[in-house]
Design brief:
By secondary structure, the chain is mainly α. It contains 7 helices and no strands. 69% of the residues lie in helices and 0% in strands.
């Protein structure tokens, strides 16, 4: 799985209202439910440390409303290869985010604004897949003005996707926080 997809999967899982979501389980899922074979316990601890103490913990800053998440920065040119690579990367980022957010569940109760953001992201994901299909059409490859327009469309789409991801993260993390708070036993006062 590419780094940009791991990043968004972690972010989705961090914000997930599914209370069973956890960093170790997410790391475990990156290798199909098993940890990678390592030469030593120290090597395994290093992998987990880099992913959890490094990447996971750094992504928690995006639970703050004033720290929006940014998709991986990459150039895009009006070439078939560049447009296809850009669309694929954005699609993988959205796939990772949704997979992390849902944490393996088919259905998840999401706050209204988060649900609307997820629906928009799902629609954008379909458009990105469509662009990848279209870009491989011989007619599209021959029309430079279409490549220029598609590259510009993708470039403009990125901040829009970041905004929707940020909305989902904030709304879902607030819902998760409220669920966790409601599960705590009430404090007892002793006189």
């Amino acid at each position: 799985m590419p780094y940009h997809e791991v990043r968004t999967r972690f972010l989705g899982n961090i914000a997930s209202p599914d209370l069973s979501a956890s960093p170790l389980a997410t790391v475990h899922s990156l290798w199909g439910g098993q940890f990678p074979a390592c030469e030593s316990v120290d090597a395994a601890n290093e992998i987990v440390g880099v992913l959890i103490n490094g990447l996971w913990n750094s992504l928690t800053q995006h639970l703050n409303r004033s720290e929006p998440f940014h998709l991986i920065s990459m150039p895009i040119d009006a070439t078939v290869f560049s447009v296809a690579a850009y669309a694929l990367t954005r699609q993988q980022e959205l796939d990772g985010f949704i997979q992390g957010l849902f944490n393996g569940a088919d259905n998840l109760l999401l706050p209204t604004r988060a649900l609307r953001a997820v629906d928009i992201l799902a629609e954008a994901r379909l458009k990105l897949a469509g662009i990848q299909t279209l870009i491989n059409e011989p007619a599209m490859r021959a029309r430079q003005h279409d490549l220029i327009a598609t590259a510009e469309h993708l470039r403009q789409m990125t901040p829009f996707l970041e905004h929707e991801i940020h909305t989902a993260v904030i709304e879902c993390s607030q819902a998760r926080h409220m669920m966790l708070r409601s599960r705590r036993p009430p404090r007892r006062r002793f006189n």
